[in-house]
Task: inverse folding
């Protein structure tokens, strides 16, 4: 029987949360608290080897990328997070640890993918454009329309994804040929402002997808993500391996919370 074309409003929009989503959230929160206490105690625990231990955790703190990579929605955002983690490790490996690796562009690529990840996250919060799509067939179930599960590893071909990829590509090309600290900060704050405005709009306007049952959870996850982001940026501008380790942990924690918040826009 041929596929029917129906308005998107007639199609089920509710995401299916993973059965172990609550366990994942608990593990994330407890791990972040415990690791923060440990990192802040390194000077006391290793008074004669603080620098060496700090360098070790400068690399190991990238493990926190596991949380947002698993929780991010769609293969595009997950890929950006993977590339960010990889080039960040490569940059610290060659610069801070002074260990050899082929190539010399790790600093630029680290900064580039970090900014693109922030841009992509912020754009994922803008209201969804919901076109009319076919409902039947393997291709439509797996690659068309809105996601059906939290943290999907699929490429959903939507108008929002096209906008996201296009904007990231444009700024990615610009930054590849010319990137500096001022540009990075301007891009981050401009798109963070877009995300904040989108969050307020979707949280306040009743016609948007944040239903009453999920409004408080959305606000909690978004607020926690903003707090993590503020803490991470405070430590980003400070010197020292320990401060940069905290930056790694908290910026990835911020990404995890933003992923959780964005899911409530679909539930």
Result:
């Amino acid at each position: 029987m041929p596929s029917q074309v129906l308005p998107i409003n007639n199609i089920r929009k509710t995401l299916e949360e993973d059965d172990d989503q609550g366990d994942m959230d608990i593990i994330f929160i407890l791990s972040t608290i415990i690791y923060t206490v440990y990192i802040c105690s390194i000077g006391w625990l290793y008074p004669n080897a603080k620098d060496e231990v700090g360098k070790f955790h400068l690399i190991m703190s990238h493990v926190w990328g596991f949380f947002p990579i698993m929780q991010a929605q769609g293969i595009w955002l997950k890929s950006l997070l993977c590339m960010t983690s990889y080039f960040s490790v490569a940059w610290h490996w060659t610069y801070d640890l002074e260990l050899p690796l082929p190539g010399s562009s790790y600093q630029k690529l680290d900064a580039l993918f970090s900014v693109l990840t922030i841009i992509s996250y912020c754009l994922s919060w803008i209201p969804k454009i919901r076109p009319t799509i076919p409902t039947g067939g393997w291709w439509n179930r797996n690659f068309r329309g809105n996601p059906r599960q939290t943290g999907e590893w699929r490429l959903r071909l939507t108008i929002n994804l096209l906008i996201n990829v296009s904007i990231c590509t444009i700024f990615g090309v610009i930054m590849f040929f010319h990137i500096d600290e001022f540009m990075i900060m301007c891009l981050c704050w401009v798109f963070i402002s877009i995300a904040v405005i989108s969050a307020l709009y979707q949280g306040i306007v009743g016609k948007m997808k944040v239903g009453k049952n999920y409004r408080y959870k959305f606000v909690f996850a978004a607020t926690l993500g903003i707090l993590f982001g503020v803490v991470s940026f405070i430590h980003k501008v400070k010197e020292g391996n320990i401060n940069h380790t905290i930056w790694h942990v908290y910026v990835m924690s911020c990404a995890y919370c933003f992923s959780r918040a964005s899911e409530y826009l679909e539930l």
